[in-house]
Amino acid sequence: MMKFEINDCHKKTIKEICESFGNKRSELINILHRTQEHFGYLPESVQLEIALNLNMPLAKIYGVVSFYSFFTMTPKGKYPISVCLGTACYVRGAEKIVEALEKELKIKVGQVTEDGKFSLDCLRCIGACGLAPVMMIGEKVHGRLEPEMIADILKEYE
Amino acid sequence: METVKLTIDNKHIEVPKGTTILQAAKQAGINIPTLCYMNLPHLDQEHKPGSCRVCVVEIPGRRTLVPACATKCTEGMEVLSHSLRAINARRTVVELLLSDHPKDCLVCPSSGNCELQKLSITMGIREINSVENAAISTYRKDASPSLLRNMDKCVMCRSCETVCNEIQTVGALSAVNRGFMAVVAPAFEQDLTDSPCTFCGQCVAVCPTGALTAVDNTFHVIRALADPTKYVVVQTAPAVRAALGEEFGYQPGTLVTGKMVAALRALGFNKVFDTDFAADLTIMEEGTELLDRITRHLNGDKSVHLPILTSCCPAWVNFFETNYPDMLDVPSTARSPQQMFGSIAKTHMANKLGVKRENMVVVSVMPCLAKKYECQREEFKVDGNPDVDYAITTRELAHLIKIGNIDFKSLKDEDYDRPMGESTGASVIFGVTGGVIEAAIRTAYEVFTGKKLEKVEFHELRGMEGIRTATINFDGTDIHIGIAHTLGNARKLLDGIRKGMYNFHAIEIMACPGGCIGGGGQPLHRGTDIVLKARMEAIYKEDFNKPIRKSHENPEIIKLYEEFLGKPLSEKSHKLLHTHYFSHPKQ
User: Fold this and answer.
1) Which residue does chain A place closest to B176, by CA atoms?
2) Which of A63, A111, B288, B446 could, after both became Cys, cross-link B174 (CB 3.0–4.6 A)?
3) Any idea which residues of B carry the catalytic annotation?
4) What is the pTM of this model?
């Protein structure tokens, strides 16, 4: 994976985000949310820049990033895939769907394909239990999945 | 003052409003066990995350048990600390902690000093009801030159995190990840060596288990002592003599200097010398540097940097190299006493003794973990051979004495070998906050004014306050002094200097609470300031009892300059006794 090279423009963006929250340490989670929204993920150099702006230890920032599963340090693909592992999807074979995706994309959960096109993650219940098992690709929901369908669905995103 | 009345275990007590159940119980002579709780009153720090639930007590009528450390007393409250429900819950909590904890107590470095072990003994736990052969969570070990991080033994009390962030403001440690994966680690779980860690060791001093421990060099020393080709020289730091006794059952504050020297000789060291000698040497160099800078400043030389900062404390050196790389020319260039000792021992002393450098082993006994790192720094080596080979802590020395089958209490007092065992009262007080600067003032005053000091004690420089200031009159010239102990207080002073807020001439900084007497290598006291105060009194007593109390009057130091060094800040001094600093900005 390419190391994220932070430039002055990125630094300016981070500075603005921190300032919009008054550079307050107590606003760290909001600042991280906004920053992740902008960059798609929170690489090391971005966390360091936040630490410098808020004048707080980098270890503390990493502590928060590593605690909340919403925050990620790996970039998302152009088409982020989220497979539901909630109860309904799980009993209807969501694990098989994950396996099929891992095999097809040649990555593990939490990783991104080499070309940066797809990333694979799991989540809990998206409220579409009637369609179980389901996955989301970007904003689109794919339901009633069978492992054999995976290859064809991915082709839609060429 | 508003008070509340309550009962704890049917004892009626009255406490100020706002008192926690834990504090109230203590006043009533009831010891509710704790694990994650840490109280450092002298640092104004009460750490009560309420996460371990070991201190839970029952309040009849309440649905749930409450943590005593984080629950305030209320009027008419009835507390039961040892009801069946409370005892069962406490046992379960400890059993659950043990279910995800290695069971290698017999060989754990913290065995005998472990709060979790003590709890298990107190609770009388005889088996751990975990799933048979269930794996416990594991995490890679992290070894630095000074301290070891074994997160398998972490109970997530986060005391280390509080000390590292709130008291030291180093910010190397934070709780990261969650659930079974949760550990205390530097950013991105990098090694301590790559983090802003200064190796001050205060996290080790507060860790209740074996999660954070000191690197152990005991067996390196034993091997060196057993090697007939090696000439092994030992030096003992000032603060060690005021604390070593605690490891052998003496009251805190008992001076054991004579017994310590006897024990070291019995262990087989060829020469038992004193770091105090090198502390006197430090005063000669650092004091002269101070006077030189002040004199030039008074004469209007604008290139002079004031204040001058002391540089004896290696954790402090690491701290400013990491956090203040723009101010590297402010601290004194004088090496620490440990390193001055090693440098003189392996040059002048080795020559006098007819021992080759490579055959001499210099061991230092230090109250400090950062000293282990300091003696490994490249600039303190000659062709790869370090000036100081091994730094061991006060705790390691106690262990060494026990391995040596020495009955410490029955030892007769002995005196240090000469010449490097000769020292003054000024050097002894290096072990406490304010001591280095007081020692420097005793010499600087006499050199600057040409007059004899009537009274060598400067009480205005002493005490336990985190930041202290004083003005000393040098026969008409006011010298402004600043003193800070703990790195958090050092940061406050440094930030002030950067902003140009102060007009100090000299500042002394020690990284540990109370100075070296509170070092991370001292007998563990879990934050009791009574112990620190007792050690401090012992140090001042040793100073008071010394026949010579000013560094420049140490006859062996005078001789060393005559025979070898010439004068302070000479070319030879610069080469052997001074150093330079490196910019290491780390996050």
Assistant:
1) A63
2) A63
3) 286, 289, 312, 332, 371, 374, 379, 516
4) 0.90
